Amino acid sequence: MVGTMEEATRIPGYFKNKGILITGSTGFLGKILVEKILRVQPDVKRIYLPVRAPDTESAKKRVQTEVIGKELFGLLRETHGKGFQSFIEEKVVPLAGDIIHENFGVEGAQLSQMTQEINVIVNGAATTNFYERYDVALDVNVMGVKHMCQLARQCPNLEVVLHVSTAYVVGERQGLIMERPFKQGETLREDDPQLRLDVDAELRLARECQRLLAADDAEQKNERKAMKELGLARAREFGWPNTYVFTKAMGEMTLARELAAGDGPAVVIVRPSIITSIQRDPLPGWIEGTRTIDAILIGYAKQNLSCFLADLDLTMDVIPGDMVVNAMMAAAASHAAASPPPDHRRLPQQPPTVYHATSSLRNPAPYAVLYRTGIRYFEAHPRVGPGGRPVRTRRVHFFATVAAFTAYMVVRYRLPLELLRLLNLLCCGLLSRLCAELGRKYAFVMRLVDLYGPFALFRGVFDDANVERLRLGMAEGDRVEFNFDPKTVDWDDYFYKVHIPGVMKYVLK
């Protein structure tokens, strides 16, 4: 049961003198979380950041370059002035480690000190590639969770474990989707209720397939593709659309199995939907990497996108990155405050509490919002072409069904492309450049649709009753400073003034 913030403590107060371990700190959400904790609670004891690096010095350089050195930390840097670097060195501990190893590769005295100091673990590390190698996705999204749980059991003062998942672990379900954890062995194949998912068996299968491919000289060059195809095939066998959400679902099952078997800390799963740029603080519009919908924006900005598979009337469930982090901090503080002291754990442990950091129920934004604000933005701020001339904003054709889209692509691109290739042969290669250009456009659109089409046609609505209870239980001041209420967002205003300019500035540089 989640205690109210008035009964427990205010969010910044909770993080005072706490030791926090954050995996995935070099990722988009990880950076926002590290910055927010340091900014709102400078009296945090220590923040441990494991990153892939060969040694401590390399880890420090990577954290400095990929985390602390980013524009996101400008406000914090300005606040501390000349003392900024010494403040960071006192509070932030970079670790040369990797979640695919036991104890993340940390050993000896450093491991002993860290486990004694940690009160909060936030597991945000993941590979988000929809079409990742199966062995790689399992190493990070499943074994990484297992290693985190093993480390958690060595922390005598640990109060809460917060695992970042994704709302789309539910696959392509429709209707109202509740905030509930997976049952062990659960699949999404409603047509085969007897089918069971054995996580350990999947790990063995991936290892054996990788071993056989590596041992066969003829197959070594195809190993990467074969392992990618294996992940996709296994995902679809059990009802998931891609390797990413499939392995994230297995990660959730692993978390529940490893930490819910007996005494232990409170366990929380936060499932964000499509994460977008920072809405409010510390840097509105700041974003890193290509989010799901941003691939569409970038394709449109470059005029590579003339059509797409999407129903503009359907909801695109989006949530700004700062709101996700605010919800994470509120959930961690609330559950830790409501949890018994480490030496008086409840037995048996409760299943993980799931929070949907989503917007589709309380403030749904249709895909039409993205399209109309994109048109407005690019008409007001046209892209400049190679010759310095403004690039004219063209309309995009949207198709609400796979059949309509496929028919259009065959007539508009596939048939002309085949004809052009034939003419190119007859003309001794004179049309090669035109052929290649049309081929690239066709491949670009088909790749986007293959990856993001399931999201564009997603018909589910994410219930957020747990999130709303969490918000209502917060102290009034925290509801403002740690806002994660999607009803406070004007989507047209946000996309036109904040998100699209942010994508153009920070992603499409």
Task: Describe the overall structure.
Catalyzes the reduction of fatty acyl-CoA to fatty alcohols. Belongs to the fatty acyl-CoA reductase family. There is one protein chain. With 509 residues, the chain is α/β, with parallel strands linked by helices. The chain has 18 helices and 13 strands. It has helices at 11-15, 28-40, 56-68, 74-80, 84-91, 108-117, 134-152, 199-215, 223-237, 243-259, 294-301, 321-338, 367-380, 402-426, 432-456, 465-472, 476-481, 491-507; strands at 19-23, 46-51, 92-96, 118-123, 160-164, 175-177, 266-272, 274-276, 307-309, 318-320, 353-357, 397-399, 460-462. The strands form four sheets. A seven-stranded parallel β-sheet has the order 3-2-1-4-5-7-11, sandwiched between helices. A two-stranded parallel sheet has the order 6-13. A two-stranded parallel ribbon has the order 8-10. Helix 7 links the parallel strand 4 and strand 5. Helix 7 (134-152) packs parallel to helix 10 (243-259), helix 9 crosses helix 10 and helix 14 (402-426) runs antiparallel to helix 15. The two termini are 46 Å apart.
